[in-house]
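Hello,

Our lab assistant flagged a job as stuck in the queue for most of the afternoon. It eventually completed. Since we weren't sure the result was trustworthy after the delay, we are filing this so someone can double-check. Below is the sequence as submitted and the structure that was eventually returned. Let us know if re-running is recommended.
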Amino acid sequence: MKKAVVLLSGGMDSAAVVALAQEQGFSVHALSVRYGQRHTSELAAAERVAQALGVAAHKVVDVDLRSIGGSALTDDIEVPDAGGPGIPSTYVPARNTIMLSLALGWAEVLGAHDLFCGVNTVDYSGYPDCRPAFIAAFQTLANLATKAGVEGAGLRVHAPLQHLSKAQIAREGVRLGVDFSLTVSCYRADGQGRACGRCDACRLRADGFAAAGLADPTCYA
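-- returned structure --
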């Protein structure tokens, strides 16, 4: 089977992406990043999802973004209940660039030509590294900056959820057999992975399941 490296955060979007990549015939090598995030229970969720979906391999890489700070997820900044105008405080500087770079390095080692990530339309307005232009630019970078891009068959960056709403993502996941009860999306999840029910991530997730007409499997504190 052709190999792909899929970024797996432990949230609902990345879990759906793993299943979509598998449906497309890829042997999934899932990559999670322990970057100093306050909601570390998502890493336990990533492990649960990887096991449940039967990925070929699951790797966790450590990068200390807390030493840089600048985000409510990696610094002593309170996570807001709801986002306001502009880029929210939960934006982590350069996070997707760093994570995709790690995925790119592993893909070269594996001989994989495909990277998958779970960015989607809901996050465009808030997070600059979720825009289609960013994904296209990173694919260009990947093919310019690597041996695989210059001498090999080239590299592709897939963002299959890019134009889907949370409701559509929920429906796709259910269609593919994803158990969303295993996932954690909350920015303030506790050590057991229980969600706060008030942050933007919780609101978007709950609204998505409601709009899809599906029961919300989230465990709330």
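-- support follow-up --
The delay was a queue issue, not a problem with the job. The result is valid. The chain is about 40% helix and 10% strand. The helical segments are 12-23, 41-53, 95-110, 132-145, 147-151, 166-175, 200-212.
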